[in-house]
């Protein structure tokens, strides 16, 4: 068969084109730095407890952003990391930029660091940078100074033009400088950390040689706290090969029992989590990474994924992700990066089954568990769902795939095309159930205007609730809401505080009603101008100036453990989100009254 053979299958014709000469695999060679380890032990081991976690979101993650975080964003992120349970947090590279230095000083001078949290900073093995780094940490109770230099062959030969002895000397000089400068600040408990950068592409026996030389300076066996961090700065091999490198390192390091071995894996091959997990089996004690895996190139190891992997195996991850939606919101807003809908554990679609057989299996599993509660020992065992979504503040709902030819499932398409409402998927799920009941009651397909009428009566008319007026004020980093809401003909006063208008409003509503309220999902968009002007909307509908609004906000609330969705529209985005919250809350009241 020639390279240009045409194959025909039915009415489909596919032309096979020759492979491009530019796609040349012969330019690459097999990984060359795997140690000989025929008696490796890690394959027969299991992970039984969580490693020590170290977040590098504020340094490694921050340096990989198009727009690095401001001090205010870094502070918000730092507080989130503390709340999640991180005890070691790399806060920046204070010798590299003034904002990094200022953030370190702000944390220390204003007392934002809890007693059980250790700050970590990164610095190259150069004296003026090390001096600046120790200056930034003056007054800290305990701090990790993380010094590094690259040891891999390609950097030795092509970047620095130095041999192995010269590269090792850089590491030794850096280690000596840390000892000298730490002595100038005796009030701080210092932890020394060294990374042979690009460990994954370094000859493993040479990495051991360099780290042994560093330990000879620091003398961990004499009581100095030392972390040796092994970075897969570029992920260049299969994760089992990286595990061999780690086990070889741990076996051959002279002062192994006196140091903490840490891993810092990147995701160039898509295996950063696997490499970290196998590295723990191989002897590592500590893991560095970022929430959701943000970092240079394809990213850092995703701490959330690895921690939740442990959680799903019945191991305490020692990090708390029960408020996952709030954590993800902080990460995505501070990093200005979207979350992929298929991201493990946190993506919008990860607990959604489009397949009918999957939906059926999940339903039957859940029904079985409910019917046999006394027999299941409260152990989660549901087809297609590795964890209970409720543990991270999520829920499972059936999904009907939405497209222009999906019958009743085309509701979302109709609302978007004709009326400008671009429903997020969780709202599509909520409304598709309402429409299905409506269609079954009339025993026929619903027309577009009927769908719009149902949409309006379900969400856009709050019934006994109405937002009257309000004010929002920002004082000292807190947002305060003060306003009036009409409830069953009575005007009630709502006041609360939070980190934004919506959260402060929800806080006030919760205080007034005595209910437990949490925001699960939020989305907003501008309504297409053609819909703002009334084009495509019948004049005799009751939406009038609601649909002429400029913004639509979609809110999903947890009210006393149950999930409800609502929509608000207004020319003001803030008013739209507040109306959306009232809409969702009214669904809860309707359900309670039914």
Descriptive report:
The structure is a single chain. A hairpin with a 2-residue loop joins β1 and β2. The chain is of the alpha/beta class. It is globular and about 80 Å long. The model is unreliable at 1-11, 398-409 and 533-547 (pLDDT under 50). It has 19 helices and 16 strands. It has helices spanning 57-63, 71-84, 98-109, 127-136, 153-160, 164-182, 204-218, 239-252, 272-281, 303-312, 324-335, 356-371, 411-419, 425-442, 448-460, 501-513, 529-532, 544-547, 573-593; strands spanning 6-9, 12-15, 52-55, 88-92, 118-124, 142-150, 189-197, 226-232, 260-265, 286-289, 465-475, 478-487, 490-498, 517-526, 551-559, 562-570. It has a domain at 43-335: TIM Barrel, CATH 3.20.20.70.
Ends: how far apart?
A: 70 Å
The number of helical elements comes to 19
Architecture (CATH level 2) name of the domain at 43-335: Alpha-Beta Barrel
The major beta sheet can be summarized as: 8 strands, parallel, barrel
Text of the CATH class of the domain at 43-335: Alpha Beta
Radius of gyration: 29 Å
The name CATH uses for the topology of the domain at 43-335 is TIM Barrel
Give the neighbour order of strands across the main sheet.
Answer: 3-4-5-6-7-8-9-10
Number of strands: 16
Mean pLDDT: 87
CATH superfamily of the domain at 43-335: Aldolase class I
